[in-house]
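Hi C.,

You asked whether I'd gotten around to modeling the 138-residue construct. I have! Everything is below, sequence then structure, no commentary in between.
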Amino acid sequence: MKQFIKNFIHRGAMFCGLGPVIAAIVYIFLSANGTVENVPVSTYIQEIFTSTLMAFIAAGISAVYTVDKLAFPLAGLIQGSVLLLDYLSIYLFNGWLKPNPAAIVIFVVIFAAGFAAIWLIIYKSVQRQIKKLNENIG
């Protein structure tokens, strides 16, 4: 557990600088959609801090794959669950997602489909690499 926490903090610290970039990307889309024209400084500061926290958690949770006795699919389920809660809570807190059931369901469905697709691609890629290594060894 101590090693997991150390890995979590290390990975999170490496990528939490992406927080301001995430906030800027959100505002690029909101502005392009005509949703936002001006942002109060206090709001933007809050969103920089919360998106930095979001990036820290998102990067840090990848440390779950370093836990020895955790099956790869279970690690993926844990990572996906933490990411969903991380993104959903920050998006709702910052007002980037409307707090109504339809919007939340759409967000969850899109997130789950995207995460599952990316995870499956990575899983299949790792399986191919392992197969090649085993063929080279054997």
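If it helps when you're writing up: The CA atoms of residues 36 and 42 lie 15 Å apart.

Thanks,
B.
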